[in-house]
Design brief:
The protein has a single domain, classed as Roll (Thiol Ester Dehydrase, Chain A). It contains 2 helices and 9 strands, in the order βββββαββββα. The longest helix has 21 residues. A hairpin with a 3-residue loop joins β2 and β3. With 159 residues, it is an alpha+beta fold. InterPro entries: ApeP-like_dehydratase, HotDog_dom_sf. This is ABC transporter permease.
Length: 159
């Protein structure tokens, strides 16, 4: 059955750009998420989630793997004062097999391929797949950049 974690604690995204509802499973190497495609989704065209919506769902899923290292303390408790900035730095390869219609609940899984941590940012390459039942919608590898947002005071003392 798994767990159900609100992904908003791991991402800066909010509606209408939030493309993941919950995290079903997560560890330091992988993550599984769920997303229900509703009629008010901004990435819809003719009743289907378009390619950019699938890619955004995958990227948000992938970022949770790295984000947890910033938002969880040493005891595994969530820190609520952390703000993250993240973006896709490149798409290594992506295959869109089909577009899911409104009302579909897609499951997205991701696994870490490589990761580089610096003082306040991480770059990583992650393999991801989105599907519903036996139907595969997306499969690919993306590179992400994730950074802890610094406030003005921290930036001025950081040099």
């Amino acid at each position: 059955m798994g767990i159900s974690i609100d992904i908003q604690n791991y991402l800066p995204h909010r509606a209408p750009m939030l493309m993941v509802n919950t995290i079903k499973k997560i560890d330091t190497q992988s993550v599984e998420t769920v997303f229900e495609i509703k009629e008010d989704n901004i990435f819809l065209q003719d009743g289907f989630l378009v390619e950019s919506g699938l890619v955004e769902n995958a990227a948000q899923t992938c970022s949770a793997i790295v984000a947890q290292s910033y938002v969880l303390d040493e005891n595994g408790n969530e820190k609520y004062d952390i703000e993250l900035i993240g973006f896709i730095s490149s798409i290594r390869k992506i295959s869109i097999h089909a577009l899911p219609p409104v009302g579909t609940t897609i499951n997205t899984s991701a696994s870490l391929i490589s990761r580089f941590d610096a003082d306040n940012y991480t770059t990583c390459m992650i393999h991801c797949r989105s599907f519903c039942g036996d139907e595969m919608y997306l499969e690919g590898e993306i590179n992400l950049f994730i950074q802890v947002k610094q406030d003005e005071k921290e930036r001025s003392t950081a040099g």
